[in-house]
Design a protein that fits this description.
Number of strands: 15
Oligomer: single chain
CATH topology: UDP N-Acetylglucosamine Acyltransferase, domain 1
Mean pLDDT: 83
Helix content: 25-40%
Distance between the termini: 73 Å
Shape: elongated
Order of helices and strands: HHHHEEEEEEEEEEEEEEEHHH
Number of helices: 7
CATH class: Mainly Beta
Radius of gyration: 23 Å
Strand order of the largest sheet: 3-6-9-12-14-15
Length: 227
């Protein structure tokens, strides 16, 4: 248990430059509290102490704002940055070295007893507010952009953005460990913005063909304060 706590603290230092000391991490990081309490709840759940496991999970949600079902399977060095609003469902499976930001949902679809939640491979990063839904699989090193909604499986080393989620990186491109550690999830490609830019360019071309006058260039000399 102490080894797991030490490993969890080291994981925080690896990802969060704001962490100043092990004591601060242990006392002030709700993501760490939620993960450690989930380890206890999961052990109870696997021992068929379902109600006790759910009670520990419920207390963890009240204390941290992070809801992890005790049935979820979570690997090592898992990190939830900030964490408020994170929801992880019962049959979710999370690999090693996975990073989630605040507001992420690993949600289920359907009412069956079998797997209905996502499976995340090792080194997956899910940006803030993203929703990954259903019995789908995200391969290793997948990156999900903030606010995306992913409802289909994603191959390894892909970057997914948008609603619904679309792969915008070239499939099979290797992502180095250093690149994953330095990921800025707010700087992922913007397919909506690119589409609007393409439409604007197309509109300008059509106006030119139709003989519409181009927008006049502003007179810098007249508009300047000293002009």
């Amino acid at each position: 248990m102490f080894r797991r706590i030490r490993e969890q603290i080291q994981t925080v230092f690896k990802h969060d430059p704001a962490a100043k000391s092990g004591l601060e991490v242990l006392l002030c990081y709700p993501g760490v509290h939620a993960i450690l309490m989930h380890r206890i709840a999961h052990a109870l759940y696997r021992s068929r102490l379902y109600v006790v496991g759910r009670l520990v999970s419920h207390l963890s949600r009240l204390a941290t704002g992070i809801e992890i079902h005790p049935g979820a399977e979570i690997g090592r060095r898992f990190f939830i940055d900030h964490g408020m609003g994170v929801v992880i469902g019962e049959t979710a499976v999370i690999g090693d070295d996975v990073l989630l930001y605040q507001g992420v949902t690993l949600g289920g679809t359907g009412h069956g007893k079998k797997r209905r939640h996502p499976m995340l491979g090792n080194h997956v990063v899910v940006g803030s507010g993203a929703k990954v839904l259903g019995n789908i699989e995200l391969g290793e090193w997948v990156k999900v952009g903030a606010g995306s909604v992913v409802v289909k499986s994603v191959p390894a080393h892909a970057t997914v953005v948008g609603i619904p989620g679309r792969i915008v990186a070239v499939k099979g491109v290797t992502v180095s460990h250093d690149e994953w550690q330095m990921l800025e999830h707010g700087e992922l490609p913007d397919p909506v913005g690119q589409t609007l830019a393409n439409l604007n360019e197309r509109l300008s071309m059509l106006e030119s063909r139709a003989g519409f006058p181009a927008d006049p260039e502003p007179d810098i000399a007249e508009s300047s304060p000293g002009g």
